[in-house]
Amino acid sequence: MKKIILSSLALLFVFSLAACGSGASEEVDELRTVSMFGGTDPNASVYQDIISQFEADYGVTVNDTSATSNEIWKTSVVSSFYSGTEPDVLFFFTGATAAPFVENDMVVSIEEIRQEYPDYASNISENVMDPYAVPIKGFVEGVFVNTELFTGDLESYLDKDVWSWQDFNDIADELISRDIIPFAFGAEDVPHYWIEHLVLGFNGPDAFFNIPEPGSFGGQTATADGEKWVEALSMLNELADKGWFGDTRGNQKNEIANQLFKTGQAAMILDGSWFAGGIEGTSVDPDKTIMVPFPAIPESEGGMNKYYMQSGFTSGFYITRQAWEDEAKRELAVNFISEMTKTESIVAYAELGGIPSDPSAVVDNLNGISVSMNGMPARTDTATLPLSDASAAGSFTELVKKSAAYLEGSTDEIIEALESFANLN
Amino acid sequence: MYKSKILPWFFLLPILIFVTVFLFYPFGVNIYNSLFNFTSILDQNPSFSGITNYLNLFGDSTFVTSFTNTLILIALVLIFQVGLALILALLVSVIDRFASVFKVTFFLPIVISATALGLMFNLFYDYDFGMLNQLMIQLGQEKIFWMDPVNIIRRFMLTMGPVLWQYVGFYFVIFLTALNGISSEINDAAAIDGATGIQKSLFIKIPMIQNVTRTVFVLAITGTLKVFDLPHVISPGGFPNGELHLLGTYMYEKAFNSNQLGVAAAFAVIIAFAGVLFSGISNLIFKNNEEI
Amino acid sequence: MTRKKITVLSIYAILSVWMITTIYPFIWVLINSFKDKDRIIVDSFSIPLQSFTLDNYASALYGRYQLYQAYLNSLIISGSVVFIVLLISLFGSFALAKYDFRGKNLVYAILIASMMFPIFSTIFPLFRLLVNLNLQGRHLGVILPQVAGNVAFATILLSGFIRSLPKEVEESAFIDGANIFQVLFRIIVPMSKSSIASAAIFVFLWSYNDLFLQMIILTEESKMPISALLLEISSREGGTDYGLMVAAVAIIAIPMIIIYFVLQKHIIKGLTSGAIKG
Questions:
Q1: pTM, whole model, 2 decimals?
Q2: Nearest chain B Cα to A260, which residue?
Q3: Is the CB of B241 inside 8 Å of chain A's CB atoms?
Q4: Are residues C175 and C223 in the same domain?
Q5: B60-117+145-288: what fold?
Q6: Rounded mean pLDDT of C63-72?
Q7: Which end of chain B has the smaller Cβ count within 10 Å, N or C?
C-alpha cells in the first residue's frame, strides 16, 4: 500500500514537472507577434513567409502565435493586455473591438510613431489609415453575380455598370421563371449584409452614425427617420414573398446559401470581398463573376440615382506600448511592420483578394471578380463602414437575432428589435 | 468500523480545496459582477446596479422562453434519454455475445465533436441538399422544408432530437456498470423462483440500482441546464427569433455576443440556482420512494 | 424457435437498430473525409468512389499545424487531469459513502452545486486568477481548473457505486484487523474497478474535448491541444474547409475511441460475484 502511495506521488510529481516546464522563456532578440492569420487562412502563408524572411534578414527570432479569429480568440487577445502578456506586435481589428486597449493607451498611435520614424507606413493611403493601426487591405461589400446564368434576355444587363431597383426586380422575375433562385440568403446565422444594405438604401450612409433614439420606431413617438428603419427591415418580407430567396425564403444557414450560389442554383449573393476567395474550384467561374452595388431603393434617401457601398479597412498592425517602451524592441517592431506593409508585401496579400491599402500596390493577373471589386469605389457615390462596425459594440447583434421576424414581416417584433438596438447605442 | 468524525474531512480536503479555489471563488466573483453594469468585457469601472440585471432577465421574453424550453427538454431527457439508456443497459446486461461491440458503438456519438454532428444533422434536414429530401425525391415525393420556422414545433423536435440522441450512450454506460455490479447470485435466485426477464428487471434490478439512478437524474438535469454545443449549431441563436433558445445557448449569446457581462453573470447565477433546486427536488422524490 | 430464442433475437435486433444510428455519424465523417472538400456539402451522403482523395488528411497532418505536438499536449493535459481526479475523488467518495458525519449533506450540496457552473460563467474571473497565480499560458493552468470541474462528477459517481457495494467483505476484513487504508486500497478499489474506469473515461473525454478553457489559457500554438485544431478549422471567414474539418474530426476522435475500447474491457460482467462466492 505504501508503494501505491509513493508511486502515485512520484507520477504526480513527474506530471507537474512536465506541465510546469513549458513556461515561456525570455530571449533578448525575440519579437512576439500575434495575428488573426490562423491555420487554413491563405493569408497565413504570406504572413509566415514574410516572417521567415524577416528572421533571416535581421537575425532575430519571431515568436508568433496566430489563430483564426472568433469571439473567444478576440477576448483572449484583449485579456492579454490586462495580464501583461500582450505581444509586441499585433495584427488585429480596429474600431470597437480594439477599444478596450486603444482607449487605455496600451498601443501606440501612428502619430507618435511618426515622431520618431517619419517615414513609417508612408506608402499607405491616408484615407484608409487608422489612428493606431496600419492596414494591409480592406473589403468591399456588394452583390456577387454569376454572369454565366445571365443568358438570353438577361445578357443586356451585363453591359450596365450599375443596376437600378427596377432592373433587379426584372432580373429576379426572369430568374424565377427559369427556376433559378435570384439571391442566395442565409438568414439563420448571417442576415447581416441584407439588414445593413436595406437600412443603408432607405436611410443613406449618415444614418449609421446617427441612430435614432429609442422610441422613434413606432407608436406615438415615432419619427419619420425611425419609421424608415422599420420599412427597411420589413422589405425583407416583401422580397421573400416575391420569391427572391427561393422556397426557403432565406430561412437557412449561410453555408447552405453559399453552396446554392457556388453550385449555380442561385444567381446572386450579397456578401463581402472575402467571399471571392472561395469561388475558385467550384462550378462558378471567378472570371465570369462580377460585383454590382446593392440596388438603390426608390423610396430611399437619395432616390433612384444614388449608389452607396459598404467597405472598410478594419484591421491593421499595432505596436504595443509595452514594446515601444523597450528601445531595442521598438526598433524591431517598427522594422517588422514596415516589412509587412511595404508595397511588395501588400501586393502579395492583395493577390489573395481584398482592396490594397497601398494605392501603388498593383496586382497582376487579377481574375474577373477581383477587377470588378476593385472597381466598386468608382461605381458608387459614397462609401461607409458597415453598420455592424459603426454601431456600439454588441448592439448589432440585437438586430441579427430577429431576422426571422423581418422575413415574416411582423412589425411589432421589428420595432422591438430596433428599440433594443437603439438602446445600446 | 467507520467511526471517526475527523478522518472523512481529511479525505475530502483535496476535493474541497480544488473546488473552492477554481470554481466557487470565480463564481463568487461572478455573483459580485452580476450586481454591476458593464459596458465592455474589460470595463474597469462598472457601475453598481444591484439586482437590475436579474430583473432585466426575468422581464426578458427570450429568457422566459429559454427557461421554458429547457424545462421541456429536461422532461424529455429524463423520460426518453435516460429511459432509453436504462432499457438498452438492461438488454445488454443479459446478452452473452457482442456486448463489447454495443458498448463501443453506443458511445461513439459522445466522442465525435458536436460541430461535426451538428453539421451532419444540418445536412440531413437541409431543404436543397439534405439527405431527407433526397430520399423524398427518390420516393417520388415533394421536398419538405423540414426546418421551416413556421412549423416551430417540428423545428423544436428536430433541433432537440439530436441532443437527446447524443448522450444516451453516456447514461447507458453508467447504468450498465451498475447492473453488472449486481451479484449474479441474486439473478440466479430469482430465476429459480420463476421470475421472468421483465419481472426480474422491474422488481429486482431497477430497485437495486436506485442510488445510481438518483445520480443519473442529477447529472441529466444539470447537464441539460448547461447544454450548448449541439443546439447552437443546429438552430444558432435559437432561430427563429430566439424561440428555440435554451438556457445554455442564450447564456452564451449574452456572454460572448453582447458584451453585457453583468447580465451574463446574473444568468449564470440563475442557472446554478436552478440546478441546485431541481436536483434537490429530484433527490427528494427518490428518497420518498426508497425501500429498505 | 423456442420462446427464449425469439426473445434473444429481438433483443439483438433492438440493440442493432440503435447501433446503426450511433455508428452512422462516424461513418459519415469518415466517408466525407475522403471526399473533395467542395463536394461535401453538396453531395454529403454519397460514397466517393471516383473522387476519393487523401488531400484532407494531408492538409490536416502536414499543414500548418504541428499535429503531433497537439496530440502530446492533449495527452499531458487530459492524462494529468484523469490521474489527479481519480486520486482525490477516490478518497472523497470513500468518505462520503462510508462515513456519517456532520456536514455530510453540506458536502454533497457543495459537490452538486459545483457541477452547476457553466464554464462561461467562471471563465473571466478564472482567467484573472490564473494570471495572478502565474499559470496563464501553462498546461497547469488548464489542468487544475479542469480537475476542479470534473472532480465533483467523479466523486458523486464513485460514491454512488461504493455505497451500493455489498458490505460483507469489508466487515470480515475489519474483523480480521485491517485498517482504513488497507480496506480502501485492497478491497474497495478492486471492487470498484468498473466504476473507476467509467469515471476515468468520462473525465478524459470531457477534458479532451473541452474548448473554452484551453483556448483562453493556452494561446501559444506549441501548447495547444487537439480540440483547438478543430475550432481553428471551423471558423474561417472565406468559407469553412469542410474536407479539412471532417478529417480533423476523424483524427481527433480516433484516439478517444481506442482509449475507450481499451478501458471498457475492464468493465467485466459479474466482477464482484467472485468475491462473495469465493
A1: 0.82
A2: B128
A3: yes
A4: yes
A5: MetI-like fold (1.10.3720)
A6: 71
A7: C
